[in-house]
Design goal:
The strands form two sheets. The protein has a nine-stranded mixed β-sheet with strand order 4-11-1-2-3-10-7-6-5. The chain has a domain at 105-236: L,D-transpeptidase catalytic domain-like, CATH 2.40.440. The protein has three helices and eleven strands; from the N terminus they run αββββββββββαβα. The protein has helices spanning 3-22, 210-219, 233-236; strands at 104-109, 114-119, 122-130, 143-146, 150-156, 159-169, 173-178, 181-184, 187-190, 206-208, 225-228. The protein is an alpha+beta fold.
Length: 237
Amino acid sequence: MTRTEWLAGAVLALLTAFSLAFAPSGEQPSAVASAHVSPTTAPPSTSTALPTGTPTRTRRPTLTPLPTLTATPTETPTATSLPTVTTEPTPTAWPFNPRPDLDRYIYIDQAVQHMYVFEHGNLVRDIPCSTGLPDPDKYTEAWSGRVGQYWGTFFAFDVYADEAWYLYKSAGSILVHSLPYTLENGYKIYQDRDALGVRPSSHGCVRIAPEDAAWFTAWDPEGVLCTVTDPYLERWR
């Protein structure tokens, strides 16, 4: 035996011993014909068998889709026109016509002893007055016409009066003027102020308070239509 053959045999022996040492029990070694080992049978399967039966799978809950929300457009409100309100003329509380057709108008009511001054039918001043006494030669007659000229201050029946405006001719001249007064130590002493708006007290003229007489003159009544009512003689007698 040559040295080479001896070495080959030693290697083969070592390989065989190594294979036997690690082979599983009961397994028979195959005959080695050459340096390459060819197993003649497949090694038994060492995989662990799966458990029998079909595994139970937990089903996911069926998701019901939410309804699709469709945004409903908000309707723009249609402007509804309000009904046309017809302004009715306010019924007048006056027992006479205040003549809204005129720019200015004067009404002297002897029943209540007041002189009413209007502009376009609207009362601008209510002036308490005192007309003629219910005597045959002193009462103030009913009249309608336009205010005449400004007379200013005059003297009659031993008294003075200011801011006189002419109305019409009767037994004498009928005027609108301030309360009559006398002069004492340079002061005006007015008479019958308590009669204004209460009762007749004059000789036929229409008396008003000094402050109202000054306002009347500033209002400039010349040419303004004026109505003087019935004197109501039986009432004042």
